[in-house]
Amino acid sequence: MTDQRPLLRALFDAAVAAAHPDSILAAHLPPLPRGRIICLAAGKGAAAMAAAAERHYLDTLGLAPSRLIGIATTRHGHRVATRAIDVIEAGHPMPDAEGLRGAEASLKLAATATADDLLLVLLSGGGSANWILPADGITLAQKQATTRALLRSGAPIGEVNTVRKHLSRIKGGRLACAGSSAAEIVTLAISDVPRDEASAIASGPTVPDPTTLDDARALVARYKLDIDDAVHAALNDPRNESCKPGDAAFARARFAIIARPRQSLDAAIKLARDSGYAIADLGADLEGEARDVAAAHARLAREARAAGRRLAIISGGELTVTVRGNGRGGPNQEYALALAQHLRDLPDIAALAADTDGADGGAGHATDPAGALIDARTFAKIDERDLDPTAYLANNDATGFFDQTGDLLVTGPTLTNVNDIRVILV
């Protein structure tokens, strides 16, 4: 039987390469301003984006180093070497004090921008957690507890960010509002959200926000979130409404997405097709409970196998996990575990599910797994070690399961993030 793991990994790598700052950013960077370039970056690709901007402006265009300043706030373990732009490593998915320091410093630097300056904002997935600047009256610990409740609720990322934006002094357009209204603001973003909604990427610090305090309060009620009284009070304070269209802060603001999940999915699809597979393209914006989506995809795989088709079932998006147990693992690992549960009798099917940022759930460490693979070796380990996928699912312990089978995919930080990629090879 052919080992499909090299191809699965190549498909993942192709998706990542299509969205890497080193290859995509320079073509989108704006021309030199009369004054300074103030570069503020946030997210898992922040340091890599800052370094790519430095190479373009300092080396290609010959900008004097004194005219380029900035701060890149990225996830712990995602630092790369920079020259003019400071790098701060901060918590993700749980925000921490370093993220608070990075956000405060970024907001202060934005306020110094003049009409001659360019405020260059570089965003990537993870920016919502990396830039943590609680609304007045909320402590870091209270914001962390709210984040924890949101992440455990199973809410889609867009809804999570709706609440975050109304508890922040930097999200929901507030970074733009903090800068001088005369300064030009150019935001370049790597999208990690379904349908590439600008106000959802890093919780939209430089764009108008269509969501409201009413929306945030409704989500707290719908998911029965256990949050502090101070957080409830903040969500009832009209001063915490996010910035809306028509605000003068957006008069000289421009926003562009430079990498999308769709582009990365297309890169993987091309490679799978070139490798002899027909394609079932399920889209780049899938949402839903990881185990339920896996059950539906397992049915498609069984149907394809029964029809004798050589098929690659490929999807992107960002799935969720409603946490009921005490185990470890993100949505990609849970998806792969549910696939193993449904496909364990079919050794000629192989699959990969991974986050393109190189970390799926986990404890916020650079060594966290990106996801997991399954194939005949996985199914053999299930029998050999008498493993029960259903029991591991019940405890939300996909990492524990794949530790046993040896099927965790560990890539380290990829320095970009265009959501998940899932592939089933039949």
UniProtKB/TrEMBL annotation:
Its EC number is 1.1.1.81. It is an enzyme of class 1 (oxidoreductase). One of its GO terms (molecular function) is hydroxypyruvate reductase [NAD(P)H] activity. It comes from the Bacteria. Residues 312-420 form the MOFRL domain. InterPro entries: GK-like_C_sf, GK_N_sf, MOFRL, MOFRL_assoc_dom, MOFRL_protein. Keywords: Oxidoreductase, Pyruvate. Gene3D superfamilies: Glycerate kinase, MOFRL-like N-terminal domain, MOFRL domain. Pfam families: DUF4147, MOFRL. Residues 8-235 form the MOFRL-associated domain. GO terms for cellular component: cytoplasm. PANTHER family: GLYCERATE KINASE. This is Hydroxypyruvate reductase. It comes from Rhodopseudomonas palustris (strain HaA2). The lineage of its organism: Bacteria, Pseudomonadati, Pseudomonadota, Alphaproteobacteria, Hyphomicrobiales.
